[in-house]
């Protein structure tokens, strides 16, 4: 029978797997489908069948991906299959054949189309959502849910996901909001995976060859032998005094690696050296025929260091012909790089390693460099890629072997064990379909490693999909504009985030509450007093405690908010009066501490300052316990460093000169007075307590203990009921609070029923600080700036420092920029206060860490200049594109013509050189 599926399958040189055929048959039934299968299993075949059906039936199919690199890869795949006239591409800054029957695009582009009711949506039959597990991503995830909820009912979804442990739950939600969705789950890897451990110069199977599931006795013996020469606490990090800490801060300790290098390699070291060097690992892989390989190292610096170590150890993995072909790939992609740019990028070092079959791959590389590495690896010429875990997501780069150097990684706060889901994601790259009979996963031995723990990690397949959805200001105005406020609120109640919340609340059963009610009754019976109603008496006592706690909380909260706002308004060079603590006196701000990485969201900044006596230190909560203000200002020496004595001396003189012109140090501010209304309530209750009959009972405190237990349980039960009620409508409630903020600022009409002209401007700004950006436009903060100045100020709205850059002081390039950013901080503080009043999370701080670089670039500086302070080329390009993206959004948002022209000039000034080269980044 010549069915559509038969004709489609004939285009492949391999038979379709059962799960692929079953999913395609569901599409024939006009149903949507969720396919959850391991990396490399071929689930994209199902998405490609949707594109085939679109051409067969005369309808359209949009193929969406989370990042531009994936969109470009899929675009070229489909062009090769169907021809350039049948396939289009839309990635925000690139539009090719957008009215074709098959269009590949990023998810953000489709979201924007839905909000704009684009005519391109007419005739749409299918939407393929590739890598739909990105729904759990904090930044990109909400867009997926906006698309799923916003598409017309007639559109069929084809959702392609990595293996997740709650696929059925996700499928149930999809069926609830999209209608007929069938679930296809396959946990069979297309290429079987064998697990190993690299110990010294050997590669040993993780599991016993003759007893699958049991740990290899050889590894257990190695662990025991190693343990004879280690302290009992060797799996835990050592304190400075040499003693093992009670709390483990390097993961759980089960995967080893916590012992310091000094302990391993110092004169006291005894016992076997089981941890392999990187060159030993690569040589062992080559000897065992396990190349090409991806070696995962959880830091960019570690990746670059690994390549350098392999180069220094004279590892050569290619022959002459392979090296020539690799050189051709590199020169073809890098043809647009100038000699100066090549020098800034260390091109010669990169090319030397690349031609020897070795390269790094991480977000710090230029997109064009990553494109070179990817092509070299996919062709099989490049033998070893040292990569961060980001390679486990996205583009198709399978290997014969995956090596994981450590099973502990830094997550931004602490060193933590990688999860079973992360392990599955990393090892999913092992095994090339149609090439390898088996894939291989190799874990490098670390001192103190427990092989049984490694086996447990390798055996589990837990990777739950958790929604990251949360309404934003931009989302709110777009939803209200397209469907009205009430309908938008109802739509958000159907989000996957709310679906999962409601599922979790199902565990709060009525039977538990009945037991609580019985216990409460018993406590109150035991508190019975012959002199009067002890429950009433205890209630008044409890109410006094609550009011006093509320009084303290309000006093503390208001003061903390005022202090945080005052600190957020500071700039480098501002002179302040430190109000308290051992450093009370005049100080000059070196770094305000408001950059995104310096503090947790919601906490106050801790500025770096020079205090009297010329010490440079961070001012803590004990130093600044009341709001501060700028009294004067001095210029911070260029490239000031706290350890540079000469720079400290210059700044100290400037501080002394400025202080000499100032009046006496102001008096320490008095504490805020207690709220009069609360104080009156507390006084009244205390009077009533003293006159209550039970107050004179000799057994008063005994009765009170039982009454307090019963009332505490009552309070806990009531709070649980209220918490469940709040959570059951948490998404819609947040949306309502957002709408109230938008009403207050004039982006929605009174009552929030319609979007105003200013709201339509906000609807075009897609940024984490969307409302702050819109308010800055309205207040003219961005007006009157030249191109480099505008680029520098815009960068503070999109840039967020990496942890490694947080200690590097950054400055604004000129006084005009400083003035604009000061006004911008005031806007951010005002928005933050309004959000606090509406119980919304306050926006993150502005971050000036990219201002100097983007200022120099848009002023015409070369790459070697902007990378001079240590920023990586990949970070620079990615951040520059974000600035350009925001400038483009503002220019198209209906702002005044002068600002629109200024933003377009920024866009043009940014998009040059390496920033405009292909090799798309996310």
UniProtKB/TrEMBL annotation:
GO MF, one example: hydrolase activity
GO biological process: one example: nuclear-transcribed mRNA catabolic process, 3'-5' exonucleolytic nonsense-mediated decay
Comp. bias (Basic residues): 237-246
Occurrences of domain Helicase ATP-binding (ranges): 24-182
Record GO cellular component, one term: Ski complex
Domain named Helicase C-terminal: residues: 284-481
Disordered: region residues: 226-282
Source domain of life: Bacteria
Keyword Hydrolase among UniProt keywords: yes
Pfam families: DEAD, DSHCT, Helicase_C, SH3_HelY
Keyword annotations of the record: ATP-binding, Helicase, Hydrolase, Nucleotide-binding
Start-end of Basic and acidic residues biased regions: 226-236, 261-271
Protein name according to UniProt: RNA helicase
Protein species of origin: Acidipropionibacterium jensenii
